[in-house]
Amino acid sequence: MPLEGVKNVILVLSGKGGVGKSSVTLQLALSLSLQGKSVGILDVDLTGPSIPRLVGLEDAKITQAPGGWLPVVVHDAVTEGAETTKRGSLRCMSLGFLLRDRGDAVIWRGPKKTAMVRQFLTDVYWGETDYLLIDTPPGTSDEHIALAEELLTMSTTSVEAASSSSLPRLAGAVLVTTPQAISTSDVRKEANFCVKTRIPVLGVIENMSGYACPCCGEVSNVFSSGGGRVMSEEMGLPFLGAVPVDVKFGEIVEGKIPQDIGDDSDEEGDEGVVTEAQNGTVEEDHRPLVERYRDCWSLPIFEGFAKTLLGKIEGGGATA
Fold it and tell me: Which keywords belong to this entry (predicted)?
């Protein structure tokens, strides 16, 4: 059965490329995992799959099992005792794992893209998964139409129907924009796409809203801010919040620890720690991605988003 074991599906949409949709998807997934939920990420940005790079698993390979393709494990669940889940699992699936080389170009016409999206939805064995986040390409193209058609066929938007059957629930969509008017105008089209396809809108995230200082976290509005909030109010959509550019998150997905700016330690540095100033390199961090993410300034913001989404989905309620 397609999406067997998946309870809720969330689409992450944007009208324009380059707004940080994949990084928002990953941070939402990590935050939901830290709330004890088992999470999956399905990357259907076929011509620009970036999830393998963001999770640091570009060399991972997909395994074929009797139930279908097995997604790549980013981290396993951690439990405290028999009843309490300290951290949920995170797994992901992307066309990037199926390419022979990460530099290979995917030059496909619409029908082949549509077939690939349908195969991702029907041939991946997720197992017990609380939330499946689908990272989509920008715009409203063949992939989006195929997703909407397939998801509305194999799932339900009703809480009651989902609880009384084995169908997953299409919980809704999160729209990602940047503050600039050129981005919000494209996201308006994405919101209209949701209306026409009857996909509920869970909320709007204004990404890259200012710049967070890596030393103190103070936010400076380098370009602008507030465009996403204004658009949400004009269209009657829930506004989840604004996210500044977080340099630490960029370092974390690269698996590095930058030397602290303004470090007043002596030339020899702290015992057992090799700094960039000493040998021209950056120390590698071998902790799981989810544990490295705890060091980000943006974690409290996305924790708030995750709690809001859990309240909407598990408590019911989204804007159609």
Answer: 4Fe-4S, ATP-binding, Cytoplasm, Iron, Iron-sulfur, Metal-binding, Nucleotide-binding
